[in-house]
Design a protein that fits this description.
homodimer; DNA-binding; Arc Repressor Mutant, subunit A
DNA sequence: GCCGAATTGTTTGATAGTCAAACAGTTTGA
DNA sequence: TCAAACTGTTTGACTATCAAACAATTCGGC
């Protein structure tokens, strides 16, 4: 799958299926929720990543921009927690966005340890450019779902994502 | 989230919420299917990875073992395609499993280019050890779902994972 | 049969993403 | 006042991944 785009097969019939290519047997994995989850997530992420790459952004950068837009003055640690990455990983991420003139690090007088993150004018413009691309992405991946099914899916996923309440047994 | 386990906050009230810590605002992301998907997948994968680590395996190794078990004589390229990784990445994966004496590379007379992958006795024993752990993992992540809901979730996910039929517009 | 094209496994970089640990500056609470 | 905690940062290591090139082997059209 990942290589199919990289390798341009020239032979007419060898591209996908040799006369009778037996598909790989999944039976041990196919019963697992995590298996379906992984495949769906892979496809969605792929679509998301290429859609954002067209705009010149990585998925992480888009997440950061959208979170800063909705949380002006967010600190780098808070951003990292929200993105699920270490705060030391936030540094180069913001470095890059700052070099692109999309994000500012503002020193706040009330607490000189933290950097309050803000979007610049160009950053807000970038978000406005991102939103419609995001909507098209969403329509694309939910193309085979009715609105009700889409809502059901999100509800069930959120239920799965809930942390187990410290019952580790 | 990832850091919450690494950092042991000792201060009683600073652990989760300073008196009124405003939770990070998600509004732009929370409407996206991919967002729910990512969080659920992260939690499931975490559970899976730690469960398998207890057995001494990485997720990739478990996938390889289960696929070889269900497809005796699989080639490395086919395995890579099934796992969604490049065939060059399969090499060290199988190297490791072979060093553990769980997998054999068999040269087939019919095609001396390919390696037919097979489980050893120890490999089959490993699979037998893995299966119940897999079942417990599955029960854990589906704990908040009824059997019907679990089935619905898998069906919807499989529908999302379907490749878009070459309509790239 | 012959020979160019394709396939397979492999090696060798290169890249990206992540964390852990240590640090200095700053704030906080007893 | 001062030890403990928090913040951003740097550095180093590690993992996972791919791309490209290679030799050995097979295949298909002529």
């Amino acid at each position: 799958m990942a290589t199919s785009t990289a390798h341009a097969r020239t032979r007419p019939d060898a591209a996908g299926d040799r006369t009778t290519r037996p598909p790989v047997n999944d039976r041990r994995l196919a019963v697992l929720l995590g298996y379906s989850l992984r495949r769906a997530q892979l496809r969605v992420f792929q679509d998301f990543a290429t859609a954002m790459a067209d705009l010149g952004f990585t998925p992480g950068q888009v997440g950061a921009l959208l979170l800063i837009e909705s949380n002006r003055g967010l600190s780098q640690s808070e951003l990292g927690a929200a993105l699920g990455i270490d705060r030391s990983s936030v540094v180069p991420l913001i470095d890059r966005l700052q070099a692109m003139k999309l994000v500012r690090r503002v020193v706040r007088a009330s607490d000189r340890r933290t950097n309050a993150l803000e979007l610049t004018e160009a950053g807000e413009a970038a978000v406005r450019r991102i939103l419609p691309v995001l909507e098209r992405h969403e329509r694309r991946i939910a193309a085979r779902l009715s609105p009700a099914e889409r809502q059901t899916l999100m509800d069930l996923l959120d239920r799965v994502a809930v942390e187990q309440d410290a019952k580790e047994k």
